[in-house]
Design brief:
Pfam families: CLN3 (PF02487). This is Battenin. By secondary structure, the protein is mainly alpha-helical. It contains 13 helices and four strands. The strands form two sheets. Strands 1-2 form a two-stranded antiparallel ribbon. It is globular.
Amino acid sequence: MAKGKPLTVSERRANDVFDEESIAVRSRWRNFAAFWILGLCNNYGYVVMLSAAHDILESKFGTTMEPVTEFTNGTVTTTNTTGIRSCNTLSTGAILLADILPSLAVKTITPFLPFYVHARLATCVLFSAAGFLMVSLSTTEWLAILGVVVTSLSSGLGEVTLLSYSHQYPKQVIATWSSGTGGAGIIGALSYASLTMWLSNEDTLLVMLIVPIIQGITFWLVLVHPPQSSIPITKNGIDSQEHIIEIPRKSFKEKINLVPGLMKYMIPLGLVYLFEYFINQGLYELIEFDDIWLTHAEQYRWLQVDYQIGVFISRSSVNLITINKIWIMALLQFINVVILLFETLFYYLPSIWIVFAFVLWEGLLGGGAYVNTFYRMSTEIPRADRKISLGIATMADSIGIALAGWLSMPVHNAICRLPQPSRVGS
């Protein structure tokens, strides 16, 4: 084309198409990145509270069973405590319940309420920041628990809102969201375990106030928000938005009627989470190896990190491998429960590395069940029902976790009353 020669109509149209496609590509990758970061920020506080559970219980809620020193007639006598387990007087399952029950309540109610996405996300950001502040600055038990509860409300509201909101984007954002939530696990657990080596528990939580700030910046400045009446479509491999007639809102009865059809997704997912969180909050604390490079408290923290590594790997894998039969993962997770329950009773595993291997496998199963469940739903459920269905299904993992919290407390207390066995082979 000669310099200064005006473009023909066909050339202008070709340039317009190219510009639209390049803009669509940039928006697509911005949205993928935004959903990953939002998944990370949304679950970060929840993960940190669980990682901090052992420390919160020890520092805020009493004592552990330790050797007893007595003074009798001026003589110092130390009671023989050989075989006594080092247990918190309250199971970490108590923190788990405080961390999941409010989230479950939000997930149960929110799908049936009006969908004001900006107001919901503003609430998530404020509650997340408030949770870190309350737990860090608390001087009483009720304020620490309230901080955990507020963090749970933020996480639950964010999950049900953003998974529902994802129906307006290409289905691949489910994969990036899930990967981000898996990243929250490993980054949250690892950052807490690492920072507490240099800072106090309270100062560590204050540093983490940066997370809700990042969450707000990502949602309002990074994520490209589609018009209210648009859905994603694909042309020549490029995702873009097209205006359509708004689908009428479903009535409360119509939403309830969707629940029975969602049970095939929710029951297997709920069982996987029941088994894995029974392990996490009921058994981790009772696994202890003496005379190694980690203290008991450090062992608990790094088992959480190990678990979250498995979750991150599997939640990031759905674009490489998809698994439809979630019930198989539930069965395998139950086998993990049996193996690790017997470890707490008999101390029969000769090395902590074997425990780390089982815990990594546990995380792989849990993350795989989550991402494959929601990915299947995003491809199998009709678009008209997808938004509300994704929101309802988020209850499944929370119900499983809540049941695990209730179950882990009596089991924890029963095992704590048993004599601590000698390690096999020691």
